[in-house]
Amino acid sequence: MLYRENGQFKTTYRQDQQMLPILQDRIFMALLLLFVFGVAPFIFSDYLFLSILIPFLVLSLAAIGLNLLVGYCGQISLGHAAFMSVGAYAAYNLVLRVPQLNFLVVLILAGLIAALVGLLFGIPSLRIRGLYLAVATLAAQFFVDWTFARVKWFTNYAPSGSVSTATIDIFGWTVDTPVRKYLFLLAVVTVFALVAKNLVRGHMGRAWMAMRDMDVAAEVIGIRPVYAKLTAFGVSSFYVGVAGALWGFVYLGSWEPLAFDINLSLNLLFMIIIGGMGSILGSFFGAFFIVALPILLNQAPEWLGIHLSTAMVSNLEAMIFGSLIIFFLIVEPQGLARLWAIGKEKLRLWPFPH
Amino acid sequence: MTTAGASGGKSIGGVVLDLAGISLAFGGVRALQNVSFDVREHEIRAIIGPNGAGKSSMLNVINGVYHPQEGTVTFNGVKRHDVNTHEAAEQGIARTFQNIALFKGMSVLDNIMTGRNLRMKSGLLAQAIRIGPAEREELQHREAVERIIDFLEIQAYRKTPVGRLPYGLQKRVDLARALAMEPKLLLLDEPMAGMNVEEKQDMCRFILDVNDQFGTTIVLIEHDMGVVMDISDRVVVLDYGKKIGDGTPDEVRGNQAVIDAYLGVSH
Ligand SMILES: Nc1ncnc2c1ncn2[C@@H]1O[C@H](COP(=O)(O)OP(=O)(O)O)[C@@H](O)[C@H]1O
Ligand SMILES: [Mg+2]
């Protein structure tokens, strides 16, 4: 009885179109934000920040980006790690060559460059779909990997091909400690998640979803496939490019060639499959899952006093991922986000069964 | 408040859509063979014929989903050989589908809102920020969509994912989405197929009301001869891709070729 919308009458369409129309949801969101911004920085350990929360936040952003394309617009991509690496190398070169740029500007520019590359590799989607598009985006992955490994200018002629970044400084605030990195990422991801939510609620988002659900009907209504698909590719790779820059500068600090290879692309796909296709919230769930599961598998046996070899743990990890992906693809294509929604539905009816 | 089309007091205007010598083939299948007919402003024009006669293909030619090998489509005085779907939509041609083609993953409201997409102009950045112009635009179009929701009596299902609605209501949402475009010409592909009597009556009423209140010109494909004879002003009869009859319901009813086609007399 605590969680329900009864009695909360909407008197204007504006109220009805709010992001969180139910009062309890708004309270929950406010408390959550208060906690993650105001309380978490004081009580969480550096270990938690470095090994879970920081990668979680960056990967959430990347997963949101991929979800805009795959989950909302219905276009498949196996090359999204490539767009992350474009963002990362773009940011690296911008900082290197134009050191006076503010890092926030660098982030936006890195995103825009990734968006351009994404647009370019999105062009085949106007002609092909499904498996063929998947292969085309895979080509993007290999092409970009090859470029950054072979064209030495991008890595500033470092002999090993690995690059390392300077500490970020935003208006005199250095992002050096784990807590500061966390707060910086949290702020960026919050803004980007909000923007993504706005986009999918607007006419552009509806054009994407229409394209995904029934492309002929979408065209007949006047939605241009070129516009819908290319904006999806562009916005998606923008997000992923920004995530790539953050992954490089905030999480990794320095990285080798192939830090953004096909494995990362597949991991991003797993995140949105497990978290929920076509759900911003699901992107967070999926990213958290992918980051937390290996750690849990590493630690849990020890808590229970069982000793497992590392090989065993990584086998277990692969098996659990594999079976979960099959489970979600078959049973619940909308992933954890859907389970969450069902849970809320139950809560709304509670304590009455119907 | 509605008048049956054939006997109605509405003023039917000049020709808005003229199809001349349309031929369309898929490989060896000749779906349309040299078909010509016209549609006048404000009228309800029915296309009838047995399954596979080429009725749906005709609608697809009119709004540019199919491109005929021969013939021209003249809409609002602009003559085209090849219609482009997007242009057709921009010029005010809307349609519903024989096999409901709703956007399955979206709510009823969002489905209907897509009908406004062509009119929504706010850019990427404005939508990203939302507060301000994008939200104002959204609300303004929401109001237009709400009027259609009221008109078609589907208020209770606004937020329901379309996939969960029963078939008859899905057909209604399909019509709502087309109406949201505020079309000049509305193409309806078997809007009453698979409905029970009551649902058919509702749909008939909606079609007549749209025609009457908004003056929308309608091209309607329908199998139920009773319905066709009741609500249409003129009827085209297709059989095996050829036009075998054209005229008022009474004229068509008395046409020997039409009677033969429907009774299955050898061709
Ligand atoms: N996209 C298509 N590809 C191949 N054949 C088609 C296609 N669309 C329609 N046809 C063929 O054209 C003929 C007319 O079909 P259609 O216009 O759907 O008939 P109706 O709507 O009158 O039942 C049929 O023989 C059908 O098989
Ligand atoms: Mg048909």
Polypeptide structure, described:
Chain A is mainly α. Chain A has one domain: ABC transporter involved in vitamin B12 uptake, BtuC. Chain A has helices at 13-16, 23-43, 46-72, 80-97, 103-122, 130-150, 178-201, 203-213, 215-221, 225-252, 262-275, 280-303, 310-331, 335-349; strands spanning 163-164, 168-170, 173-175, 254-255. In chain A, the strands form 2 sheets. Chain A has a two-stranded antiparallel ribbon. In chain A, strands 2-3 form a two-stranded antiparallel ribbon. In chain A, helix 3 runs parallel beside helix 7. Chain A is globular. Chain B has 2 domains: 1-92 and 183-267, Rossmann fold (3-Layer(aba) Sandwich), CATH 3.40.50.300; 103-180, no CATH class. In chain B, a hairpin with a 2-residue loop joins strand 1 (15-26) and strand 2 (29-40). In chain B, helix 3 runs parallel beside helix 6. The longest helix of chain B is centred in the middle third of the chain and has 19 residues, at 133-151. Helices cover 36% and strands 24% of the residues of chain B. Chain B contains 10 helices and 10 strands. In chain B, strands 6-7-8-3-9-10 form a 6-stranded mixed β-sheet, sandwiched between helices. Chain B has a 4-stranded antiparallel β-sheet with strand order 2-1-4-5, with helices on one face. The termini of chain B are far apart. Chain B is α/β, with parallel strands linked by helices and 267 residues long. Chain B has helices at 55-62, 85-90, 108-114, 124-129, 133-151, 167-179, 197-213, 225-231, 249-253, 256-263; strands at residues 15-26, 29-40, 44-48, 70-75, 78-80, 93-95, 185-189, 217-221, 234-239, 242-247. Mean pLDDT of chain B is 92; it is low at 1-7.
